[in-house]
Amino acid sequence: MKIFLSTCLFLAILSEVTAETCKVKKLNDSDSKGTCETSEGGSCFFRVIGRRFNGSAKLETEMGCTTDCTSGNYIFTSGKDHFLRDIRFCCHAKDCYKKFFQLQQPKLNGQECPTCFPSFSKACKGSETIKCYDDQTQCIEFVLDHDNSTIPEKDFHGCASPTFCAMAKNSMHFYAFSGTITKARCSDTLPLLEQLNFEG
């Protein structure tokens, strides 16, 4: 009986110890807004969204508590200084910032993909390629249907991580693009731009 009670007491203490206090910050907030307590089996999470398109750069962070944390790198590059990085990781309260500052500079991985800049839309021609970085092992092309219906669809081509490709193929709304990704096609290699046939 004593062993049973001791075990129950130990588990009760352990469940209290495993709860963590995480900082809370929404993507559009400039600073963190208080804290939250993780539930059993939960953890803190930290998300970094960095993007640069057409000379405009933006970096946003989000953090908080979650019960179902999945780390992942959703990365897309369409040319020099044209990129999107949505990096999410699970962390303990004390090491969330540490992981953020440990994010390394991108490294070339040997993959190359055809590219086209959105400003050229479907009129884009040529055989320019870009070099891919880190886990961007897939070439991708997709159409962005913008939230604002007055903005025309844009075509994107470039390098992508497998997680970005999987997300894009599900035609999901993507916050960082302010629109829904459609007609996504990914492969280890894609034909050069002059060989592509755009549909509808």
Automatic annotation (TrEMBL):
Keywords: Disulfide bond, Secreted, Signal. GO terms for cellular component: extracellular region. CDD domains: TFP_LU_ECD_PINLYP_rpt2. Its main location: secreted. Residues 1-19 form the signal peptide. It is found in: Secreted. This is Uncharacterized protein. The lineage of its organism: Eukaryota, Metazoa, Chordata, Craniata, Vertebrata.
